[in-house]
Amino acid sequence: MSSNPEYWKNRRGVDYKNQQDVQRTADSESYTLQERWLTSYIRDLHARGGQRRLRVLDFGCGAGRFAHLLAPLDFLDYFGYDSSASMVEPLRANPPSAIKEALDERIRVSERFEAVFPESETFDLIFTVSVLVHNRPDTARRMISAMMDRLTPGGKIVLIENSHTAVSAMENLWYGGRWCHAFSQYFEGRADTEIIDRFADRHAIYIASLFFEIRPSRHVYHAHSKADAIICSLGDLLSHGLDQAEEINENILREAESIPANNESIIGQLLDIREKLAERELTCDQHMRRILELENALNSMSEQCKQLSNALSETSVRFADRQKLLEHVGAGLRDAQNRRSYRTITSEETTPPRVRTDLPIYEKNKSQDIKYAHTISEFEGLLHIFHAEWVGIRAAVGSLPGTKISISADRLLSTQDLSELSRQIHSGNYKKVLIHGFSQNMSKLVSLLSRMDLASVLYIIKHGNPAQWCYDAERKAAFDVLDFAATGRVRRVHFMKAGFDLDLGNIFRPMLFNMAPAFRGSGVPPLSPRERGVVFAPAWADWRKNLYTGLIAACTANSVGKILVYADNIDVPNLINNKIIRHKFIDREQTFGLITSSSVCMNASIVDCHPMVNIEAQSFGVPCVRGRLNLDALEDHPYVKLTEVDDAMSIANIRSVLDRVLAVPENELRDMTLDYQAASDAVSRNRYGEFLEF
Question: Can you tell me which residues the record assigns to a coiled coil (predicted)?
Answer without folding.
Answer: 284-311
